[in-house]
Amino acid sequence: MSTSVPQTGTSGPPGPAGTTPVLELRDVAVHFGGVKAVDGISLQLESGLIYGIIGPNGSGKSTLIAAVTRLTPLTRGELLLDGRPVHDVAASRLAGLGVARTFQTVRLLPDLTVRANVQIGADARSGDEAQQRRGPAGWLRPRAASPAVAEAVARTRLEGFEDHYPSELSYGTQRRVEIARAIAMGPRLLLLDEPTAGMNQTERAEISALMRSMRTDGLCQLLVEHDVQMMIDTCDYVFAMNSGRLIAQGAPADVVQDPAVQEAYLGRKWRDHARSE
Ligand SMILES: Nc1ncnc2c1ncn2[C@@H]1O[C@H](COP(=O)(O)OP(=O)(O)OP(=O)(O)O)[C@@H](O)[C@H]1O
Fold it and tell me: Crossing angle of helices 114-124/171-183, nearest 10°?
């Protein structure tokens, strides 16, 4: 069963007694002038689970991810990573603290091979040391391939593509390289913002299977995705947002059936119109 969500207090599936959540949000808000993009969200994410955020366009999903990754300042609230406050930590330090992400659009370096692109993720693990090896454009200059790269390449089934350049790869494969780069960081928390956008069904199923396989490592994953079936197939627990707030949460198949969620997607006008017919 999904549950409607109180707007104060903390929500999320209960973790094993006594464990500290990987990520906790306490009353997080991000306002842009009068626009309350995120407006008082409290939740907890536990290790080894895949969480999803659904919601109609403009409901605040991307802003929430930007807040967690410190790319957008909080208007109010607290972020805790493994129980440690991070709402004042610079975005550039989050990788060193175990947070990795992929973006809505592919962001690979075109002049680097797959291996070198993934190595950038492995290098970001070492934090300050890596800062000293920044290239002229601000990107890290990759060093010799590390075991983390081979592991990430194997995990994402990219063997054979290591010496290819991004332009030689299909879109779906490029997205797998992005995920490989993120997991080469050895994160505790992986945020995936629409990782299957533009993919066909087979490629989507591959990403879903890849995410499921990474649960066994204790990795906590947070997925933003428009494809509802992908959410049902992939996530352990889903949060539904509308107008910057949580409106439901629970098992994915239940949340997508929740009347508040259906109304948020379809709109009251549409429902009223349907009733009058
Ligand atoms: N930098 C900004 N300045 C002003 N308003 C913004 C900014 N970023 C987002 N918004 C507004 O905040 C609200 C939430 O936007 P957001 O992109 O987080 O929603 P979303 O759920 O990710 O949407 P989509 O599914 O279309 O990506 C929208 O009304 C949007 O116009």
Answer: 30
